[in-house]
Amino acid sequence: MTSAWELLLPAASAPARARGRALREALRDAVRSGRLAAGTRLPSSRDLAADLGVSRGLVTEAYEQLTAEGYLRSGRGAGTWVGDAVRAGRPRARDLSPRSSGDLADFVPGTPDLSLFPRAAWAAAQRSVLADLPHESLGYPDPRGLPGLRTALAELLARRRGVVADPERIVVVSGVAQATALLASVLHARGMRTAGVEDPGSPQHHALYASAGLDTTPLPLDDEGLATGPLYASGVRVVVTTPAHQFPTGIAYSARRRAELLGWARSVDGLVLEDDYDGDFRYDRAPVGALQGLDPERVAYTGSVSKSLAPGLRLGWLLVPDRLADDVVERKRTTDLGHPTLDQAVFARFVERGDYDRRLRVCQRAYRERRDALVAALAEHFPGSRVTGIAAGLHAIATLPERYGPEEGFLARVAEAGVAVRSLAAYAHGGAAGGPVGGGQVVGGPVSEGSAPGKEVRLVLGYAHLTPGRIRAGVRRMAAAV
Question: Measured between alpha carbons, how far is residue 60 from residues 15, 18, 47, 64, 84 in Å?
Answer without folding.
Answer: 18, 16, 11, 6, 20
